[in-house]
Design brief:
Number of strands: 11
Number of helices: 12
Structural class: alpha/beta
Strand content: 15-25%
Helix content: 25-40%
Oligomer: single chain
CATH topology: Inosine-uridine Nucleoside N-ribohydrolase, Chain A
Distance between the termini: 23 Å
Number of domains: 1
Strand order of the largest sheet: 3-2-1-4-5-6-11-9-10
CATH class: Alpha Beta
Radius of gyration: 18 Å
Bound molecules: beta-D-ribofuranose, calcium ion
Order of helices and strands: EHEHEHHEHEHHEHEHHEHEEEH
Length: about 300
């Protein structure tokens, strides 16, 4: 079992990633850390707790983190149009208590990596701000984080926020660059592969008709996400499983094929957030191909186990 911290900005595909991780015995979730991105950090924390409560894991701890980018004080990018006004496709998830952990996400990451050196995998599916702040505060973590499986970037394909930038990198280009250049081993799961892993409308009908509250709410949430994708990318025929693919690769790295690259992230001008990769023997592992059928099946089987319980 791998010790894992999942860093999220919950968000619809973040919610799917949480559901997948909860049903994966290969993963021991130490805790979930949140930050701004799709929604505010506060909303991401609330949404995460609602998902955990619905999926019968209310005991899992959620640590709230950064509300602003690493080197800038504004929060430029939110994605309510993709994820709904509440970040969960406007589906009405049951309320949860608003008591949150007092420890900051950054300190939680540091304390867990220190407690279990070279054993903790970080799955980061939001901006890289929490991790960048942790590395800046405690530089020795560079040698003690086992690996980061990072959803972000678009090395060989166009971006999804601008023609150049993917949302998690656009949201905080400085932190993405800092973490990718830090020396921590990274597997990068960008739009290069996530735009090929799709959830289809038919699956939602199965969830909808499951008769469970979780199945119905998840279907409603994903219909919203799918409507957005149909408008923006009608040729795709589904919505992208960005964040779940990072969880999948942390479980089984053979879902993707990678190449070693040095990746820099543009921090200025119209190309801000663009990830630029160049082959390099000691670089990070950039996913360029994905076994989409095998991954999607794995994801669906596990998520359905949680939704239909
Ligand atoms: C990424 O951006 C967010 O909107 C999604 O949750 C995902 O992490 C995709 O570009
Ligand atoms: Ca996300």
């Amino acid at each position: 079992m791998k010790k894992v911290i999942l860093d999220v900005d919950t968000g619809i595909d973040d919610a799917l990633a949480i559901a997948y991780a909860l049903q994966s015995p290969e993963i021991e979730l130490l805790g979930i850390t949140t930050g701004y991105g799709n929604v505010s950090a506060e909303e991401a924390t609330r949404n995460t707790k609602q998902i955990l409560a619905l999926l019968q894991s209310p005991e899992l701890k959620v640590f709230q983190g950064a509300e602003h980018p690493f080197k800038q004080s504004d929060t430029r990018h939110r994605a309510y149009e993709v994820h709904g006004d509440n970040g969960l496709g406007n589906a009405e998830f049951p309320d949860v208590n608003d008591v949150i952990e007092t420890e900051h996400a950054v300190d939680f990451i540091i304390s867990m990596v220190k407690a279990f050196p070279n054993e903790v995998t970080l799955i980061t599916v939001a901006t890289q701000t929490n991790v960048a702040l942790a590395l800046e505060k405690e530089p020795s973590l560079v040698k003690e984080i086992d690996r980061i499986v990072m959803m972000g970037g678009a090395v060989t394909v166009p971006g999804n926020v601008t023609p150049y930038a993917e949302a998690n990198f656009f949201g905080d280009a400085d932190s993405a660059h800092y973490v990718l250049q830090s020396g921590v081993p990274v597997t990068l799961i960008g739009l290069d592969v996530t735009m090929q892993t799709l959830l289809k409308r038919d699956e939602l009908q199965v969830w909808e008709h499951s008769g469970t509250k979780a199945g119905q709410l998840f279907a409603q949430m994903c219909h919203f996400y799918m409507d957005f994708y149909e408008k923006e990318n009608p040729q795709l025929g589904g919505c992208a499983l960005h964040d779940p693919l990072a969880v999948g690769v942390a479980i089984d790295q053979s879902f993707v094929q990678t190449e070693k690259m040095n990746v820099i992230v543009e921090r200025e001008g119209e190309r801000r957030g663009q990830s630029v990769g160049e082959q390099a023997p000691s670089g990070i592992d950039v996913a360029l191909r994905v076994d989409r059928e095998r991954f999607t099946q794995h994801f669906l089987e596990r998520v359905q186990k949680g939704l239909f319980a």
